[in-house]
Write a structure and sequence with these properties.
The structure holds two protein chains of two kinds. Chain A is mainly α. Chain A has a domain of 218 residues. Helix content of chain A is 73%, strand content 4%. In chain A, helix 3 crosses helix 13, helix 5 runs antiparallel to helix 11 and helix 8 packs antiparallel against helix 11. By secondary structure, chain B is an alpha/beta fold. Chain B has two domains: 161 residues, P-loop containing nucleotide triphosphate hydrolases (Rossmann fold); 67 residues, no CATH class. Chain B is globular and about 50 Å long. The chains are: A mainly alpha, B alpha/beta. At the A-B interface, helix 9, helix 10 and strand 4 of A face helix 2, helix 3 and helix 4 of B. The structure holds adenosine-5'-diphosphate and magnesium ion (MG).
Chain lengths: 339, 242
């Protein structure tokens, strides 16, 4: 009876992992081959990969279509500036403290927004983000509505030279994004991930097969807030300045993130990575066109939603049966059991 | 002997459509009950109310003597109440094997690794072994129905609710299915089986009940029930819209 084993890896996932490993080495050495402009662009790209991956977990897997994740980006940013300016915490330490605090804050937020379903949930999350933005603009020690810059002394204390600081921030962005992605992959490979993937595919069946759907959703919501706030803290540490309008921007931290996830492939880990690359490519090549570029992006999103509703990666994965990451469980019957 | 599953004075309407008009039903431990009735009689809705996906307007659901009316579907499943969906509800993006692992791990509250070999055996029993690593979304309707059965069994149910699993099977496949259900029963699982394929029911169940107009209009020995004039009349109706 025990002639079975279960494997996660497939040929495509072995290739995928190898490609990812090579990409990581190349990216980790970027400070030695890339100029300042490239580093800045890549670091920004990493943060979008992280944000989109987190939103994908929330909306693509748990079915929680939030348009208010900027609440946690901004919360992370403001927590960092508050800790650094008011309590003298080291900025990098502040990033990691912002995560758990945001996770705690997300619990009462969930208690409120989880009462709403579908579109009402989406609107609810956006309202919460707006409330956060208004609250942030009331904090006069952090510049109120016009925001505040990181004190020069703190910036200088981070690293001896500007170049060294930029390297540090670059590696921090890469490291945090890898951390977020690794955490997501580990979550999906765990027991919770099994439940989450089932919920992604069919909530009614998930419930009827013993999964406490609400509990899993709550866990995902809290974890996502945790990660999103850390990424938000880092984004604004890189910007060296925070204001309510930039930190709680629905455009930057939700609209673009949804665009990325949808064109890349919602409900798949690979989707947001592909989507971010496409998004940055489009932004770099089309940004001269001014506001026309937003129109073109909108058109691309509509075309993808109509012809490839599972995104570009979804199209590829379904046609070729690929998975770039070893997430699926494959049943292998072992040779001695050939009866 | 207390009933393993009981519905007491269950009422349910969708707008003007009354699908349950004070239904009482009790399933004894180890019993296999068949339910027939015309399309739209409310058979599937009855399973929904038993398993918690549909809320009755009034009435009680009891499992092994305990009231479970307020329990969510996942808790009822873990108590040992499993169902197959008439319209299959696979986890389409997951493999067939993973579908069954989900049911086994969560429906019976076990660690993932401990359920693997049980799931592999179940796929074998349900005729899905060669499709274990296929995406469930790509299965044919027949295989989806098999998957429904495999998943329900994976939760290690005490009561198994089957909703039209025999439709569309060949003679041979139907015989295999009947054998499988008899096996499950022999293991002590109590069964309610909704089915239009009457000969499959007659070969399997101890008791047959007829749902019509929101009520059970007949219940008893399967052969007697099926021969009664009233049932024959309703079945003319089924034949007409089938
Ligand atoms: N969620 C629902 N909303 C409205 N009407 C429903 C719903 N579910 C079932 N019905 C109606 O209730 C009646 C009984 O349906 P169902 O339980 O599926 O019958 P059966 O399984 O006996 O064919 C049908 O008329 C159906 O259209
Ligand atoms: Mg039905």
């Amino acid at each position: 009876m025990s002639g079975y084993s279960v494997e996660h890896a497939t040929r495509s996932s072995r290739v995928g992992v190898a490609v990812i490993a090579i990409a990581l080495v190349v990216l980790a050495t970027a400070p030695f081959w890339g100029d300042r402009q490239t580093l800045r662009l890549l670091a920004e790209l990493f943060t979008f990969v992280a944000l989109a991956s987190l939103w994908n977990l929330l909306a693509g897997y748990a079915g929680l279509v939030s348009v208010g994740q900027q609440a946690f980006v901004g919360l992370g940013a403001y927590l960092l500036f508050a800790m650094v300016i008011l309590a003298g915490v080291h900025p990098i330490a502040a990033i990691f403290i912002a995560g758990p605090i945001a996770a705690l804050v997300s619990i009462p937020v969930a208690a409120l927004t989880f009462r709403l379903r579908g579109a009402y949930f989406a609107i609810g999350t956006w309202v919460v983000a707006e409330v956060f933005r208004l609250l942030a603009s009331q904090i006069s020690v952090l510049g109120g509505g016009s925001g505040v810059s990181l004190p020069a002394s703190v910036v200088i204390a981070m690293a001896p030279t500007r170049t060294a600081r930029e390297f540090e921030l670059y590696w921090l962005a890469l490291g945090l994004t890898v951390l977020v992605l690794a955490a997501i992959v580990m979550l999906l490979r765990s027991r919770h991930g099994l439940a989450l993937t089932a919920i992604r595919d069919n909530e009614v069946a998930a419930q009827s097969n013993g999964i406490d759907v609400t509990r899993v959703k709550l866990i995902v919501y809290v974890l996502t807030a945790f990660g999103t706030a850390m990424v938000g803290a880092l984004i604004f540490l890189m910007k060296l300045r925070v204001s309510p309008d930039t930190a709680f921007s629905v455009n930057d931290w939700t609209a673009f993130v949804i665009f990325i996830t949808v064109i890349g492939g919602i409900g798949r880990v690979e989707g947001p990575i592909i989507g971010t690359i496409i998004f940055f490519f489009m932004r770099q090549t089309l940004s001269d066109l001014g506001s026309l570029y937003l129109l073109i992006m909108g058109a691309v999103a509509i075309v993808v939603m109509l012809w490839a509703p599972k995104g570009l990666w979804g199209l590829i994965a379904e046609r070729f049966g690929w998975q770039a990451l070893p997430l699926q469980r494959h049943l292998v019957s072992t040779p001695q059991d050939k009866s | 002997m207390p009933a393993i599953l009981a519905l007491e004075s269950i009422a349910k309407r969708f707008g003007a459509v009354v699908v349950a008009d004070g239904i009482d039903l009790s399933l004894n431990e180890g019993e296999a009950l068949g339910i027939i009735g015309p399309n739209g009689a409310g058979k599937t809705t009855l399973f929904g109310m038993a398993t918690g996906t549909v809320k009755p307007d009034s009435g009680k659901v009891l499992f092994a003597g305990k009231e479970i009316t307020a329990l969510p579907p996942e808790s009822r499943c873990r108590l040992g109440l499993a169902r197959s969906f008439q319209i299959p509800q696979p986890f389409s993006g997951m493999t067939v094997f993973e579908n069954v692992v989900v049911a086994a791990a969560f429906g019976n509250n076990e660690r993932e690794k401990t359920v693997y070999s049980r799931c592999a055996d179940l796929l074998e029993r349900c005729g899905l072994a060669d499709k274990a690593n296929k995406r469930a979304g790509g299965l044919t309707l027949l295989d989806r129905k098999r998957l429904e059965l495999a998943r329900a069994l994976a939760t290690k149910p005490r009561v198994l609710l089957l909703d039209e699993v025999a439709g569309g099977l060949t003679e041979h496949e139907c015989t295999t299915l009947i054998a499988l259900i008899k096996d499950v029963r022999a293991e002590g699982v109590s069964i309610i089986w909704i089915e239009h394929v009457v000969h499959a029911l007659l070969a399997t169940v101890d008791r047959l009940a007829v749902l019509h107009g929101g009520k059970f209009i007949a219940s008893g020995d399967p052969h007697t029930v099926i021969k009664s004039a009233e049932v024959a009349e309703i079945y003319m109706g089924i034949a007409a819209d089938a």
